[in-house]
Amino acid sequence: MRQERYVGRMSPIWQLLEVKATEHMRRHPNDWFQADGNRAARLSGHAAGLSIDYSKQRVTDDVIDGLLALAEERGVLELRDDMFNGVHINGSEDRAVLHVALRNRSNRPICFDDKDVMPEVNAVLDHMETFVDSVQSGEWRGYAGDPITDVVNIGVGGSDLGTRMVCRALGSYADRGIRVHFVSNIAPSDLASKLAVLDPKTTLFVVASKSFGTQETLANARSARRWFLESAPHEEAIKKHFVAVSTHTQRVRDFGIDPDNMFPIWDWVGGRYSLWSAIGLPIALFLGMDRFKRLLDGAHALDEHFRLNTGRDNLPLILGLIDVWNADFLGSDSLAVFPYGTRLGFLPAHLQQVMMESNGKRVRIDGQPVDSHTSAVLWGGLGTNGQHAFYQLLHQGTRLIPSDFISAIRTHSPIGSQQQQLLANLVAQSRALMLGREREDIEAQMRAEGADEATIARIAPHRVCPGGQPSNTILFPQMTPEAVGALLALYEHRVFVAGAVWQIDSFDQWGVELGKQMANELEPFVGSDLADDDFDGSTRWLLDEIRQHWTAEQSGDEEG
Ligand SMILES: O=P(O)(O)OC[C@H]1O[C@H](O)[C@H](O)[C@@H](O)[C@@H]1O
Question: Staple 172 to which of 74, 253, 351, 412, CB 3.0 to 4.6 Å?
Answer without folding.
Answer: 412
